[in-house]
Amino acid sequence: MGNFENINSAVKLLSDQVSVGSLSHCNQKGDPYPSGEELSKIVDLCYAIFFPGFFGDNTSVNSDTIQYHIGVNVEKLYIKLSEQLYAGMCFDSENDKCGGDLKQEAQAMASEFVGTLPGIREILSTDVEAIFRGDPAAKNYGEIILAYPGLKAIVNYRIAHSLLLLGANPLIPRMITEKAHSLTGIDIHPGATIGRYFAIDHGTGIVIGETTIIGENVKLYQGVTLGARSFPADENNIIIKGILRHPIIEDNVVIYAGATILGRVTIGHDSVVGANTWVTTDLPAGSKVTI
């Protein structure tokens, strides 16, 4: 009997609304929740679209069939993404208007995202080139596309950033980048702005904060942190959000392993930040910083 009493007591305490507080969520009218599994499928479809023959049904992709394969994957992507964008809209606890209008809005947003795919792939081609150009161990582009964790983190980020710019519920892009984070150890916030020819070498432990701006032809090594200093609080001691608190990295900058750059500082173009350095002030163009 004692065992059942413990179980019943635990269930009662865990169900108490005061105890649960903000740790639970109930959608209005039983509307759908964003699904990590479905978002993973959406990312997989993006990989098959960006890199045909490397991902997806790669056994029959050739110059004669590529348009068919991409067409099928784009249609699947549109359908699944529409559903997840709608779920994201409904997830907002203050939103009690889920239904036809929001479904149409989600479908329109999914269509807009499909329209961004050629541009995303063009930028990714520069990222692959930058990684290949900067890593003497890389034998070919295929090795980078199939095996490099840095590229995986970049691909997920570019998908998520595009969705964020289109107005998706921020939960959706954040779930997409966190999937790459859990697999690679590379944490890129979808709100960061990152230019073309972006290279990550090794990558484990890299952190790129929400308001970071990175220019073109920038290379980061493992353990780099582009973070914020201590957060300001309001009169109620609540952290003030939405401020620009992360670094600006200009073009042609290399940041070596373990370097930490904090706050809204600018690292001037063509600079080199050495390993294990700690930077909290602006650096002029062409700087070389070491311990």
Low-confidence stretches: none
Number of helices: 8
From the alpha-carbon coordinates, what is the Rg to the nearest angstrom? 22 Å
Calculate the terminal CA-CA distance, rounded to whole Å: 66 Å
Strand order of the largest sheet: 1-4-7-10-13
The coarse silhouette is: globular
- State the helical fraction: 40-55%
Using DSSP, what is the number of strands?
14
Strand content: 5-15%
Largest β-sheet summary:
5 strands, parallel
Secondary-structure element string: HHHHHHHHEEEEEEEEEEEEEE
Report the mean per-residue pLDDT as an integer. Answer: 92
Class by helix and strand content?
A: alpha/beta
List keywords for this structure.
14 strands, five-stranded parallel beta sheet, alpha/beta
Q: Please, could you describe this protein's structure?
A:
By secondary structure, this protein is α/β, with parallel strands linked by helices. It is 46% helix and 11% strand. The chain has 8 helices and 14 strands. The chain has helices at residues 2-15, 17-20, 36-50, 66-91, 100-134, 141-147, 149-166, 171-184; strands at 187-188, 193-194, 199-201, 207-208, 213-214, 219-221, 225-227, 248-249, 254-255, 260-262, 266-267, 272-273, 278-279, 288-289. Strands 1-4-7-10-13 form a 5-stranded parallel β-sheet. It has a 5-stranded parallel β-sheet with strand order 3-6-9-12-14. Helix 4 (66-91) crosses helix 5. The chain is globular.
